[in-house]
């Protein structure tokens, strides 16, 4: 038998990490006092399959460790042990240790044995505390049965050896349980030698284990991993039954408990995963895709008829138009379906937060309730993977700086328990994620002081509230009084903003003193396609993301004002919006430099508005975003390029980057328009 | 080209050969490793990229990839020349510094010339011109039929081109 077990390792690790996640979320539910037997069973099953897998692959350290966990969980399952905060905490700790162990094995590095030993001890302590009681009760039940021995009938299925199990080893292990045993082999099923498949198992055994010190569970343990690959029957053996001949046949009676166990194994094995770089797609999404392709093929064959038709005349034109319209709608639907394949629910990013909040609130001595809504909101896998860290940072931040200590909260007339709310929802082609806390809110004075100290702003800069709050996203900014290991190193918020910006998103903060703060992240649904507004400037065509456009308008000269003779602003209702002459910033020749001969496109990014002066609006279309960085470099003010219908390249403007360029351009001007949109 | 293998077999085994694609630029003949040449195409309009040095003419679409185009005359501070019928874009595969990132870039040259198979040993280091001439992109000089061919180090040249872009933006 030469089966390379290595090939299954990837699957094992994936399954195990999944199992650990399940255990973790299950344990956290338990902690909230929700003692549900089904939940405990789920946790137990996960532990059980990790133990099984690691045993099979020879990761004995993992198997042993999990075994102890399993023992504890088993007690909980059987109601022998009350679910307490202590137990849950220890088990959570175990999950961490286990995860580290698996990572270590996966990366082929050393397992942190000290950590493992500590945790094992903690487990043993819990188990030991009342194991005396448990043992005695177990002993009583055993004694009550007065077992003289066991008759084990082991009938493996033919395929058992193909799954990597060795019957000889099982028998050897079984026999090691007791000093006195008898083994009968039944070779009736053995075919003639010529027909024997070398990898099949044709034999079955009956083993009489003598002596009362072996428990049924010990025997079950031996066969735990071949459970669904054999017919197993265990019966107590009375003295007179000891020498029963092989002719005695057992029918297919199964104990209910064994059936349960079988089900468990089935369920876990059905959750088999693929490689980590793969993506799991709901089958309905794939069906949808196939349907669309079918439609597309029909449309295509319809259109191709026109090509074959020698006498193409006007009567065909209507049908041709219809066909093209169909083609367009199908292409669009197909595109959307393909995009949906990459979409995953945001719960993948959210699921780590209950644990994070649990751990950190204990660490800070704060009471915090985490409320999550909109977990099923879907977004692009790439975005999802990259949004995790910024989210963690923001949640930690709310926990550390936002929510006050319980006594402070009570003094302020609030409930002792703080609430952090994570919300995800769709809004006009965007995904919005809100992180809201009901803490103290941002301290404007502290931010201003700090900003002045750091020289981020000068002593006499007058800033609006939004501008002040925006300062926390500047590099090197931290207002935490005490630098903790969680936040307050001053490298956080600017990185958060940068990461989100790399995803084409924005982050804003709003805050009310004493009532809390809200961080709002806006992300594009996908990184690959964008709704673009084509604008013309001179010979060039640029693309503005439609989502950042507020409105486009014709210039009324009376609304133009010049600040300090250089910076132009446009009065739009009650706001003054800086005018950005794109041709000037990009150094190109426009059709006209007179504002009233072109159009202004008012756009917004990160709460700042600018009015971009363009020659003309050319239409809207969906564009596929191509990176400039693949063959070139990132260029400030551009988020990428795309290929238009005629094969030429058009550049996509990054509004936030453009605003920065504009500000740099204006840096020499006396009045700095930092935030755009000055209050009128 | 069919006789290349034959050539190689006839030559003494200890010599390594290299095939060069040569092109003209302001009357001089330059050579690049032919294995790096992806394709040669006529000049077509490009999309300008704002705030980049003049020698970066812009980007074009080559089968769905956005490829930057660099004017070699401008890169070498040579006199500008109107593009004409012989002007071509040589699309090259450039290896990044780490050797991992392969990029595709196009260079605009006056005309393509020929393909030569020359022994690597015949590429002589370029003489030191002092600071008067920028030789950092030149691998060496080779002589074929009494003509001098300047062999270019395209990896260095095109990565240096990028660096200049970054510097310019950082200003």
Give an account of the 3D structure.
The complex is a heterodimer of chains A (680) and B (171). Chain A has 20 helices and 23 strands. Chain A has 680 residues and is α+β, with helices and mostly antiparallel strands. Chain A has 5 domains: 6-141, Four Helix Bundle (Hemerythrin (Met), subunit A); 146-248, Alpha-Beta Plaits (2-Layer Sandwich), CATH 3.30.70.260; 283-341; 345-524, 2-Layer Sandwich (Heat Shock Protein 90), CATH 3.30.565; 529-679, OB fold (Dihydrolipoamide Acetyltransferase, E2P), CATH 2.40.50. The relative contact order of chain A is 0.05. With 171 residues, chain B is of the alpha+beta class. Helix content of chain B is 16%, strand content 43%. Chain B has helices at residues 4-10, 72-75, 154-170, and strands at 17-25, 28-33, 37-42, 56-62, 65-71, 88-95, 102-109, 111-119, 138-144, 147-152. In chain B, strands 8-1-2-10-9 form a 5-stranded mixed β-sheet, with no helix packed on it. In chain B, strands 3-6-7-5-4 form a 5-stranded mixed β-sheet. Chain B starts with a helix and ends with a helix. Residues 1-11 and 164-171 of chain B have low confidence and may be disordered.
How would you summarize the topology of this molecule?
The complex is a heterodimer of chains A (680) and B (171).
Chain A: H1 6-31, H2 37-56, H3 60-77, H4 85-106, H5 113-129, H6 131-145, E1 149-156, H7 167-175, E2 181-186, E3 204-210, H8 216-222, E4 230-236, H9 256-270, H10 283-308, H11 314-341, E5 343-345, H12 347-350, H13 353-364, E6 368-373, E7 378-380, H14 381-402, H15 406-411, E8 418-427, E9 430-437, H16 444-453, H17 465-470, H18 492-502, E10 506-512, E11 516-524, E12 529-537, E13 540-545, E14 549-554, E15 560-563, E16 567-572, E17 575-581, H19 582-586, E18 599-605, E19 608-614, E20 616-624, E21 638-643, E22 649-653, H20 655-665, E23 678-679
Parallel strand pairs in A: 6-8, 13-22, 17-19
Antiparallel strand pairs in A: 1-3, 1-4, 2-3, 5-7, 8-9, 9-11, 10-11, 12-13, 12-20, 14-18, 15-16, 16-17, 17-23, 18-19, 21-22
Chain B: H1 4-10, E1 17-25, E2 28-33, E3 37-42, E4 56-62, E5 65-71, H2 72-75, E6 88-95, E7 102-109, E8 111-119, E9 138-144, E10 147-152, H3 154-170
Parallel strand pairs in B: 2-10, 5-7
Antiparallel strand pairs in B: 1-2, 1-8, 3-6, 4-5, 6-7, 9-10
